[in-house]
């Protein structure tokens, strides 16, 4: 199993550009989530999904969209990038709920100029 | 006030020594507690869950103190490979699925 994969690993955007961060898992997990990690702060939940077709907002959803059309994929879309979105983004998945073991992808380092 | 607070460290520990650190949480209704380990520029990985009665996994011991709302992690006989940032994670209780709250992490540096 590849586990949780994320692409790209690194990305530089200009303010106002849009892009999609990809996340896929091959463990047949129902629960998937997106976090951002900034220096001196814990991981903060952006959006999460408890199954295909179901998504909900986390703590910091503004400026981000998600969809979950399949169990395997959970892309994160930045609608109009801002410097405040410069961060490391982690996708995670778990069997059914957030309290199951979270398996994280390797992260995407995003810089917005 | 942050929901989950940790001493950022770094805790500089000689190889073979014992190190312990705590994490406090603000939501008294939280039910699930975890320690995750994060190596530099890598993704977090589950180290251990924390049970009410306390639990051990090899050289690692986790304790929960509900009355004072903190969890602790103790590492015995520290190895160089234990150098990492340890993230305290607590579940939110707003819904049955839960939303995890992460602390900012405690950095441990084990020196030869």
Characterization of the model:
The complex is a heterodimer of chains A (113) and B (112). Chain A has 113 residues and is mostly beta strands. Chain A contains no helices and eleven strands. In chain A, the strands form two sheets. In chain A, strands 2, 4, 5, 6, 9, 10 and 11 form a seven-stranded mixed sheet that branches. Chain A has a four-stranded antiparallel sheet with strand order 1-3-8-7, with no helix packed on it. In chain A, β4 (31-37) and β5 form a beta hairpin. The radius of gyration of chain A is 13 Å and the shape is globular. Chain A binds chain B through residues 31, 35, 40-45, 48, 50, 58-59, 90, 97-99, 101-102, 104-107, and chain B through 2, 4, 8, 31-32, 36, 42-46, 87, 91, 96-105.
Helix-strand blueprint:
The complex is a heterodimer of chains A (113) and B (112).
Chain A: E1 4-7, E2 10-13, E3 19-25, E4 31-37, E5 44-51, E6 54-57, E7 64-66, E8 76-78, E9 87-94, E10 103-104, E11 108-112
Parallel strand pairs in A: 2-11
Antiparallel strand pairs in A: 1-3, 3-8, 4-5, 4-9, 5-6, 7-8, 9-10, 9-11
Chain B: E1 4-6, E2 11-14, E3 19-25, E4 33-38, E5 44-50, E6 55-57, E7 60-65, E8 70-75, E9 84-91, E10 100-102, E11 106-111
Parallel strand pairs in B: 2-11
Antiparallel strand pairs in B: 1-3, 3-8, 4-5, 4-9, 6-7, 7-8, 9-10, 9-11
């Amino acid at each position: 199993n590849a586990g949780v994969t994320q692409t790209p690993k690194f990305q530089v955007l200009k303010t106002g550009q849009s892009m999609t961060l990809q996340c896929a898992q091959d463990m047949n997990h129902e629960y998937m989530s997106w976090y951002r990690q900034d220096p001196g702060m814990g991981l903060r939940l952006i959006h999460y999904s408890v199954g295909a077709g179901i998504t909900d907002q986390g703590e910091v959803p503004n400026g981000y969209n998600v969809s979950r059309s399949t169990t395997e994929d959970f892309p994160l879309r930045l609608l109009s990038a801002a410097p405040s979105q410069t961060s490391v983004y982690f996708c995670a998945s778990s069997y059914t709920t957030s309290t199951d073991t979270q398996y994280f992808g390797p992260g995407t380092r995003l810089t917005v100029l | 006030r942050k929901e989950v607070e940790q001493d950022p460290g770094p805790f500089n520990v000689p190889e073979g020594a014992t190190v312990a650190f705590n994490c406090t949480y603000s939501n008294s209704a939280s039910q699930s507690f975890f320690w995750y380990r994060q190596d530099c520029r890598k993704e977090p990985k589950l180290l251990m869950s924390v049970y009410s009665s306390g639990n051990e996994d090899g050289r690692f011991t986790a304790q929960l103190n509900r009355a004072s709302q903190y969890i602790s992690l103790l590492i015995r006989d520290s190895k160089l490979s234990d150098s990492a940032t340890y993230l305290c994670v607590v579940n939110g209780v707003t819904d049955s699925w839960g939303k995890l709250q992460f602390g900012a992490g405690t950095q441990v540096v084990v020196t030869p």
